[in-house]
Amino acid sequence: MNAEGQGISKSLWPETCHGRWMSERYEPGLASVIIPTYNRARLLTEAMDSVLAQTYRPIELIVVDDGSTDHTRKAIEQWSSKCADDHLFRLSHFHQGNKGAPAARNLGLVQSHGEYIQFLDSDDILHPEKIERQAAELRECPALPWTSHIPRAPIPERSLIGPPNPILESQRNNSFPISC
Fold it and tell me: How far apart (Å, rounded) are the C-alpha atoms in residues 74 and 41?
């Protein structure tokens, strides 16, 4: 603990392009899905649809437009009516000058409030049960800092040390890897 009662001194952290870091506070149970995008209006709405189709709630969807010159902003505004009646789903949209996908992801992290974080590229879609299954896995095994797959069947042994190899895991545990 430092003098302010914080766990880690932020003076040791490097400067970010946004001038700040994500908060250590979060809303328990909330899943934050962060989609960085650049000129993918046509594909972006499919990615957003896959987030809305999640069986898990509550969700906050954070879309970071990284300086798009197409009609991305209009596509997001039109899409927002799809989630207007879902009180456990909220949409936030941020626009920044073109700084690249990593900076857009970082802005999404800074703006997020979720206990769970899911990155999603704007040209990908999520399996409808992805967040529900992964949140359940994290609740069942709180020592896991992250999870990268959805088990299709119960995993009989959990004796692996270190991050799982998605290819080996899928063969060993009858699961399929999901990129994030």
Answer: 8
